[in-house]
Specification:
By secondary structure, this protein is of the alpha/beta class. Helix content is about 55%, strand content about 15%. The radius of gyration is 25 Å and the shape is elongated.
Length: about 220
């Protein structure tokens, strides 16, 4: 049985969510609150497993309440239920300790699924914002690669993969139809650009960055 607490400043929203969740025998609404500050006080008594939390509320908003709950009531996992799909809200929510983020235009089935997922210890991101999360992640990738693989030429990337897959210079030369000295030059350039000093370090880098895998 998952003990659920609902935090929203609109009573009709709290009532609607309660009616919906209590249709399911594995979910029990044990408390509700109309703002973040009250939620902290009530959660200490009700010991919810999942807190369905709005973000915009008077007095103490849902982000601040989530951060406080993660310290004062760590067993309560917060599922944000918000009208905001801006990435700043999403990032703030997860940084505060939320375990899930759901938009208020979701279906009732999705809300129930999200509550169960968060109760099971999973991270839940609804379909409405998953694109926002992925876009933001992709934009950050070039920054992390600027000093690494992004500096390599396409040929160097080929050589790196073949080195990581256990090929010696002679094999690589044969596969790429180049001479062994050229392979050695590529290897030296790769090491210089990546600031690595051995084949073992090259292999670790190649696996970590997805050039190859341990299965190859």
């Amino acid at each position: 049985m998952t003990r659920v607490m609902i935090v929203d400043d609109h009573s009709i929203v709290r009532e609607g969510i309660r009616i919906l969740l209590e249709k399911f025998p594995d979910l029990m609404v044990v408390a509700d609150a109309d703002n973040g500050r009250t939620a902290l006080e009530v959660a200490a008594q009700a010991s919810p497993g999942v807190v369905v939390m709005d973000t915009s509320m008077p007095g103490m908003n849902g982000i601040e309440a989530t951060q406080r709950l993660s310290v004062e009531c760590p067993s309560a996992r917060v599922l944000i239920l918000s009208m905001h799909k801006d990435k700043r809200f999403v990032a703030q929510a997860f940084r505060a300790g939320a375990r899930g983020y759901l938009l208020k235009d979701c279906t009732s089935a999705e809300l129930v699924h999200a509550v169960r997922s968060v109760a099971a210890g999973e991270i839940y991101v609804c379909s409405g914002i998953i694109g926002v999360v992925i876009d933001d992640y992709i934009k950050r990738i070039p920054d992390t690669l600027q000093q690494g693989e992004a500096a390599l030429t396409p040929r160097e990337r080929e050589v790196l993969q073949l080195i990581a897959e256990g090929n010696n210079a002679k094999n690589i030369a044969f596969l790429l139809k180049i001479n062994v000295k050229t392979v050695d030059t590529h290897r030296q350039q790769i090491m210089k650009k990546l600031k690595l000093h051995s084949v073992a370090e090259l292999t670790k880098f190649a696996i970590r960055e997805g050039f190859t895998s341990l299965d190859n």
